[in-house]
Amino acid sequence: MPILEVNDLNVTFRGGIKAVRGVSYQLGQGEVLGIVGESGSGKSVTSLAVMGLLPPGAEVSGSVKLHGRELLDMPEDELIGLRGKTIGMIFQDPLSAFTPVYTIGDQIAEAVRIHQKIGKDKAAKRAVELLDLVGIPHPDVRAKAFPHEFSGGMRQRAMIAMAIANDPDVLICDEPTTALDVTIQAQVLEVLKTAQRETGAGIVMITHDLGVVAGIADRVLVMYAGKPVELGTVDEIYYRPRQPYTMGLLASIPRMDRPTARLIPIDGNPPSPAALPPGCPFAPRCPMRVSACDEAEPDLERIGPGTRMSACIRSHEIELKGLDGATIYPVPEAPAETAEPRPRAERDTVLSVENMIRHYPLMKGAVFKRRVGTVHAVDGISFDVAEGETLALVGESGCGKTTTLQQIMQLEAPQGGTVVVLGKDSATLARADRKALRRDLQIVFQDPMAALDPRMPVGDILAEPLRAHGHKDIGARIAELLSLVGLDPSHAQRYPQHFSGGQRQRIGIARALALEPRLIVLDEPVSALDVSIQAGVINLLEDLKVRLGLSYLFVAHDLSVVRHLADRIAVMYLGRIAEIGTVDEVYGRPAHPYTRALLSAIPLPDPDLERSRERILLEGDLPSPADPPSGCRFRTRCPKRALLGAEEARRCAEEEPSVVRLAPVVDHGAACHYPEEAEVVVTSRH
Amino acid sequence: MRSKVVLARLARNPQARYGLVALLLLLLLAYVGPFVGAHTWTDKDFLAFLEPPSAEHWWGTTQIGQDVYAVTLRGMQKSIVIGFLVALFSTGLAALVGAAAGYFGGWVDRALMWGADLLLVLPSFLIIAILSPNLKGGSWLWFVVLLAAFSWMITSRVVRSMTLSLREREYILAARYMGIPGWRIILRHVVPNLSSLLIIDATLNVSAAIIGEASLSFFGFGVQPPDVSLGTLIAAGSGQVTGYPWLFLFPAGLLVLLVLSVNLVGDGLRDALDPGSNQ
């Protein structure tokens, strides 16, 4: 008998916005159900409705049964008794989920005492046990810490501890790892699995990351436009999707284990919940659309034996013909390479960074400020970008990627070292030269909403760089730019908010292209976008690079995207470069233990691989850049160090490794005293 | 391009339309009305003291035989000019000073905010009262300057703190990395993104300036006789509101209408400038 049973759940917000339309699922004991979907697909609203946490004004219909008891018409005070006891919830942002004025231990103890009649000291002890269970070091000390003293990963662990405090039967996790770095994500997912083993709870895992779901879920529910479109076991969904949306979603992800020449985007945007098309909501984007699709919305129907369900009138046909995403979606054509690129050594260097340093003073005191320390944000890094090349700068938050970018974009003298852009040293630039150089150096930002002035129509946004650099015939250039990035030139009068995320990012790219630059800095250009949209933007970036002869400095944390887009990669750790080289070299033969851990931590959208993979779990968090470890900065978390002898290990603590070329002919270097050579990414058998 | 979009949005907003129509009618009344009436504001009819409204004197007469219609319209002209000029100066100054302090930071910030703080602690009423006798015979524009100089500081502090957060936005960074000079960024990106605040502030300043002018005039420091403003007329008529209500009701009613229509236009402009508002 299922613990949680959701039947035909509908949620309508004010103004007739149908956020959830007919969701049904069952969750059994110890089962993990993954709910995947893009932003706006209604997956979070579904779980809030189950918890009874929707804001007033939302109309909920259908049925939600927990152990056979109906939750939807239960009075609020009874529901309060269930929340946190029978159902636990883990939110995306662990900082806002804790009250800042109480210690973590107190808050967990409170959660225990609300639902169980035990004494204060016992509850405090239980809190320490729980913190120990989720792998927080020195739990007795850390229980007395306040939320802001915890790092993001630690807070998410504490959140899990709080959610399992009363042995819940159901755990609802809403994007629990989205805000975390990959190595921390791997830790937290491991903790979640432990928590599930300990409590035997059923887990509803809501996420947009198909890799995370592949590793943890037993069954998967795919949602689109508020409606479930496919349900099945994780293997069925990943290896034999029978609904065109699921197929497209899986085909559009860049794969780290299976690099392909071209990503397959799903055209168009998800429909607005206030204006759903008649018939199948996916029909306008579907490559398999027939006229019958527009007549009625297909229901989730059983296909084949077992509990396999799909909402598509052509599912049986897909099953019969054995179609997959790569065959039904048109693969966009790659732009023809004009000529075989010259060898790297012969090309111009467009950007060269030599031993760049950026330190921030750490000040204390209100009236008399005194310096109490130094944040080593960037501590002597060197790399260069050749013409027509993409260099990716990767690393976790706090490693100094953003500081590096800012230093380059400012075109001012760094605190130490040199930054040379297109042969001009930034330290010796005069004012007019700096402005002239800005033409050739442009940037695309991460957040497509924040990067465009909301008060300006798109035409004005694109006109701004043109006017600043004295261009004529601006109107024609704007139209040209908009069509270059695949937007309608007649939309120049609209405001940014009238565009979807992917379109806004295209506008950001168009603005960067306005002055025909030679080097574009891409600051996480696709990380804020949904997968199906992301593929289109990545393809666009690739096309533009070939057509306009651009060079990219690409900052990202998503290593699958990097593998797809970059030629070379530099891995940063705590303000230093750990490993640098061509993408094939670094991914194929990672030499630095940090790179190896990073690569192994990335969830792959392949359930078989995820199950068989050996993860290198790093311990703890990134050390503070104000107090980096002596010698090798990675040594405090290095899994390799345990295998070294005392003599060898001492070298790690005393001598800071610098990037050394691993072999004379290959473009691959690592900053490790004991580099390694072995493959870490297993390739898919499918 | 942008102004066209804003105007189109403004025209679609019914409240703003009514406000704009009312404001235009009031301006028309103030500036064309005097030519329609039979009397000018300096005329004195010695046959009619404190007469109620009649065919000869539409809005009645005062105790010295002035035509209330002519005098009120004359006062309204002055009040409109003072109100709008003070609002324009003080909000403009607040926006520029606050945005410059917030955007440039460093010593610019310290110097400008020190100046604002200094003006904040000075008692403005007293200073204007002391200064205005010395300006007698000078133009009433001095009065506008004084009123404006003492009403921008709090807004500029708000603008400064909002600029501090705007400065870190990516679109400002993008503009900076495009090589656009600081002043241009302030005028093109910072100030328009604060326009909701500034428009509300300007609207409030119009009514505040008219009221400030009235209270100063009441004590004899503002608009000097024989010149009149709505403020002096209300002050003069308020004592006789029970016996001779036309002396008070016409200027006071016009003041209310004026402030109301300015507020409606202000609201409409804010909605038109803010693409996030629902229309």
What secondary-structure arrangement, pairings included, does this model have?
The complex is a heterodimer of chains A (686) and B (279).
Chain A: E1 4-13, E2 17-27, E3 32-36, H1 43-51, E4 59-66, E5 69-70, H2 76-82, E6 87-90, H3 104-115, H4 120-133, H5 139-142, H6 152-163, E7 170-174, H7 182-199, E8 202-207, H8 210-216, E9 219-224, E10 227-233, H9 234-239, H10 244-252, E11 301-302, E12 309-310, H11 315-321, H12 325-328, E13 349-364, E14 370-386, E15 390-394, H13 401-410, E16 416-421, E17 424-425, H14 431-438, E18 441-444, H15 458-468, H16 474-484, H17 501-513, E19 519-523, H18 531-548, E20 551-556, H19 559-565, E21 568-573, E22 576-582, H20 583-588, H21 593-601, H22 607-612, H23 646-654, E23 660-661, E24 668-670
Parallel strand pairs in A: 3-8, 3-9, 6-7, 7-8, 15-20, 15-21, 18-19, 19-20
Antiparallel strand pairs in A: 1-2, 1-4, 4-5, 9-10, 10-12, 11-12, 13-14, 13-16, 16-17, 21-22, 22-24, 23-24
Helix pairs in contact in A: 3-4, 3-6, 4-6, 6-7, 15-16, 17-18
Chain B: H1 2-12, H2 14-36, H3 68-104, H4 106-121, H5 124-134, H6 141-149, H7 153-167, H8 170-177, H9 182-193, H10 195-218, H11 230-238, H12 246-273
Helix pairs in contact in B: 1-12, 2-3, 2-12, 3-4, 3-6, 3-7, 3-9, 3-10, 3-11, 3-12, 4-7, 8-9, 10-11, 10-12, 11-12
